[in-house]
Amino acid sequence: MTGCSRCGGKPFYTRRYSGETLCASCFRESIVQKTRKTVSKYKMISAGERVAVAVSGGKDSLSLLRVLNELYRPRRNQIVAISVDEGVAGYRDEALDHARSLASELGVEQVVVSYKDLFGFSLDEALDWKEDRDVSSCSFCGVFRRRAIDEAAVRVRASVVATAHNLDDYVQTFMMNLMHGDIARLAWLDPTYADDSFPVRRVKPFMEIYEEEVALFAFQAGLPFQSISCPYMHEGLRTEVRDYLNMMEANHPGIKNVLLRSALDVISRYPRSTGRASVPCSNCGRPSSSALCSVCRMKAAVEEHVKLGA
Fold first, then answer.
1. Alpha-carbon separation of residue 12 from 17, 20, 168 (angstroms)
2. Which residues contact 115 (CB under 8 A, 6 or more apart)?
3. What are 236-260's pLDDT values in tens digits?
4. Under a CB-based contact definition with an 8 Å cutoff, are residues 175 and 241 in contact?
5. Are 59 and 221 in contact (CB under 8 A)?
6. In Å, how far are 7, 213, 269 from 4, measured between CA atoms?
7. Where are the alpha helices (DSSP H) in 72-220?
8. Residue by residue, what is the 3-state secondary structure of 2-55?
């Protein structure tokens, strides 16, 4: 094997889709620079903005916190970590410990919000009615998690929320929207799109980086890996889409990059006027695409089916 394509050093990783071989140092720097270029290309973060990094405690979000802290280190108070405790027994505690540990190591402020405090129930309690439920656990959790992140971002007075969605996440979501026939949702995937239903603008600085490379960055940086998987992770379509795209990438290196470019091209041609229209939710007053927002609808469903506080 030849040396690092950039410095000639000891090889650490080869990008099959490009043929580039990198040493550990050059690989790490490439991830930081890819993130910097993505942020700049889509004007994700402007000078002086306070950035709330959504840190779940998994490898992706821990990596994002470390990278953004490095990029904005001269203005350390520009970065704050926000974490959500969904209330999943045996799973979330470990991740939150990882998040607290890294935030403390970096000297970054952290704020934690919980489903229990915000909605009156944990995720375990909210999902305890499988027999009558035709909505996946991930769909339920996603709705509540987005609201929880909003609440945390408002509390820390953030200008923008950075989430650790990587290239794999992005193309999976694009494919799932096509498979579900949710064509209108494509406009929301535009990296420059500002969703009025979120009180704080959201960005995805890792959207052009493979999940595999984020995991390798975490390993090389000595970040902890969660030992317990979410017990609800295999209920949705995403797992099947992920497995299929991983198989295609293994057989055809670079196909995820091609799909990302194709998705961005399709999205750029989609009329902005077809984006999400907002009206005040009749219950909570938050912007909604219908009379009752998804959070209030799902909260009502939980309260109807689950005997809370028993």
1. 16, 11, 22
2. 84, 85, 86, 87, 121, 122, 123, 126, 144, 148
3. 788 899 999 999 999 999 999 999 9
4. yes
5. no
6. 6, 16, 39
7. 92-106, 115-119, 123-126, 137-155, 167-180, 211-220
8. CCCCCCCCCCCEEECCCCEEECHHHHHHHHHHHHHHHHHHCCCCCCCCCEEEEC
Q: Which domains does the chain have, with CATH numbers?
A: 27-305 (3.40.50.620)
Q: What H or E segment, with its residue span, contains residue 257?
A: helix 255-268
User: Tokens standing for 124?
Assistant: 């375990």
Please list the residues that pair with 79 across neighbouring strands: 51
Q: CA 300 from chain center: how many Å?
A: 26
* Dihedrals phi, psi of 202, to nearest 5 degrees: -115, 145
C-alpha to C-alpha distance for 249 and 266, rounded to whole angstroms: 21
Q: How far apart are CA 4 and CA 20, in angstroms?
A: 8
Name the packing angle between helices 59-71 and 92-106 (round to 10°): 10
Q: pLDDT by residue (tens digit) across 95-110?
A: 999 999 999 999 999 9
Helix H or strand E segment including 287:
strand 287-288
Ramachandran area for residue 290 (φ above 0: left; ψ -120 to 50: alpha; else beta):
beta
Closest CA to 248 of 257, 238, 237, 236: 257
CA dihedral angle for residue 161, residue 71, residue 212, residue 269, rounded to 10 degrees: 60
* Burial of 247 per CB tally in 10 Å (0-12, 13-18, 19+): exposed
Q: What percent of the chain has pLDDT over 90?
A: 66
Distances, alpha carbon 288 to alpha carbons 153, 165, 200, 207, in Å: 19, 23, 15, 26
Partners of residue 85 on adjacent β-strands = 114
The Cα-based distances of 186 to 66, 109, 135, 176, 263 in angstroms read 30, 34, 21, 10, 9
- How confident is the model over 278-293, as pLDDT tens digits? 789 999 988 888 899 9
Q: What is the pLDDT of residue 274?
A: 47
